[in-house]
Each structure stands twice: as structure tokens, then as C-alpha cells.
TrEMBL record:
This is HTH luxR-type domain-containing protein. Gene3D superfamilies: Winged helix-like DNA-binding domain superfamily/Winged helix DNA-binding domain. It comes from Pedococcus ginsenosidimutans. PANTHER family: HTH-TYPE TRANSCRIPTIONAL REGULATOR TRMBL2. SUPFAM superfamilies: C-terminal effector domain of the bipartite response regulators. It holds the Pfam family GerE. Residues 286-338 form the HTH luxR-type domain.
Amino acid sequence: MAADGALSAPAAQEPALALALEPPEGDADAAVTRVYLAALQHPDPSRSLLVAQGMRSDVVDRCLGVLQERGLVRLHGGGVVEVVPPDISLPTLALTYERRARETRSAAHELAQVFFQARSASTAPDPGSIRILNSLDEVAAVTADAIAAGQEIVRTFRAPSPRTAAIFASPLHSHEEPSRGAGGRVLDMTSVYDSRILEAPDVLTILEARERGGERSRFTTGVPFSCVIVDDAAAVVDVSAFEETGSGSALVRSRPLVLALIALADHLWDLGSPLRRPGAGAAAEQRDQLILSLLAAGAPDATIARQTGVSQRTVERRVRALMDQLGAATRFQAGVQAARRGLL
């Protein structure tokens, strides 16, 4: 988009339970879900009872081991299976997954530093594979050139930075322009934003304009730096979050480096949540939809208060009420539950 290139029943419940247990991994994870559901439906489940239902004994043993590891069941002598009450075990399991996601996000910055340091130490670098940039103007210019040569897709991820602020300060009409590559072809555009960007002035209006321009966006926490990746041919790494002049940023054409940055972009996309706009309905209902969407995006209460136009205390009360209504133990769970129930 132009603003990036210029500075300007049990069976019926099974899918939901599979999501709650762990992201789907094919038949193996489906077997774990089936064993869990079967144990859940019997007051006195046991290994022999599960095998008697037509499940292979080795599959039952493996699945019970997985369920015990996740804290969903306890295994006792004689094949007795004790199911931990789901209202206790599933929130605990969800917290475990949330912690793992936070650890992954926090490791991204350190791993990226190791990645770039290892390659900058090369004794014989290809002089054409990496070009160091010295200013925000240069970052904007090479980004525009890279996008203009694009063929299919532009991936971006953005941390709060002077470069990001400059893009968001561009005229609103520029955000509505689609990203065009070689021959004027409209390029697919995906962006992952750090949730702190939601604190920017008029951010929801700007994001709506960018959506009209064809951008698909998600939000997550802990985005370490900003990057624009065009196809698998070039990437512009923006480090103005660390050096406000943009000096030290880079145009990368080394294919292994570009592929590594694509992998990071796709990983951040998988971790992110879309920011859905409120639909039709009463003002209070639309406000709650926006609160839930901002929760899922990782926004803090102060940011939600600014974006919804109510006091932070009101937001805190509504967040607590919505969590109780959705049976969520954490803010993140509230956003997930709302999305799962079609409330967003």
C-alpha cells in the first residue's frame, strides 16, 4: 500500500475441544481428543473401558499419556483413569499455552540479534546481498522501489518506531491505495502490528483505510523490529525503534536471510489476532465487541479506554464482566472465547 512505500453434544463439541486441548496436528491430535471425550462421558473411566469401545490399546495408552502430561487426567493402578474437572484443567492448560507464546515472542528479539550478528561476521559477504541504510528517507525510498518490483505478496511486521509513526501520519487517502508491483499489479498485503501501535492517534480510522486498500492485519505483542518483505526477493529491515534516525537499517537481498525473515513474519502472523470492527447493534453492544476485539489483540486497559471513549475504570469493569460472562480466566481467553462463539 502506498503509505508503506513512501514516508508520507459430545460429538458436536469435538472441534471446540480439539482447539482447547492443542492446535490441531492431524489424526494424532484427533485421537487424543476422542479418548478425552470418551473418558469425560463415563463416571468411572478406565483403560479397559476405552479399549472395549473399539480403540486400539496402543493408541489408548499413548493418548492417556498425553492427557496426563497436559494435566487433563490422572492415571492410577489397575488402569483407572481420573478425569480432572475441565473447569480446572482447561484454564490451567490455556495458561500454559499462553506462557509458551509469550516465551516465543520474547525470544524473537534475541534470536534475531544472534541471526544478524552471525551473518555480519562473515569474512566474505556478498556486497550486493545486504545494503546498509543511513536514514528514514533512505528506508522509505528503497521500500518503495522494492514494492514497485513486486510480483505477488508483501509481508510486513511493525514495531512502534519513528518509521511506523511516519507511515501512520501519512494522509488518509494514501492508506486507501493498494500496494502495486511490477506493471501496476495489485499485490497481496499482510501486516502484523505490535499491540502498542493501538495507542497511536486515530489508529482505528487509519487501519480501516488500510483495510480498504487491501491490507489484512493482525496484532500481537513483542514485535521486536519492523520489516517489509517483498515476495522472496527482498526485505527492508527497519531498526528505527532502536536508532531513531533509521541508520543501521538494511535492504536485504540474500535469499537465505529473506526466507528467514519470511519465516519470522509468518510466525508472528500465526500468533496474532485480527482486530474486528463492531457490527450493527446497540451502542453498548458495539462497545463490548470493540473491547473484546482489542483484548484479543493484546491492548491494555488504558489503550482500550482511549479507543472506546470511556474511562479506564469503566473498561476495567466491563472487561471483568465480559470475562465472567465468557467463563474466561484471563483477558486473552476472553478474546479467544468471543471469537470462537462468533461474537467478534
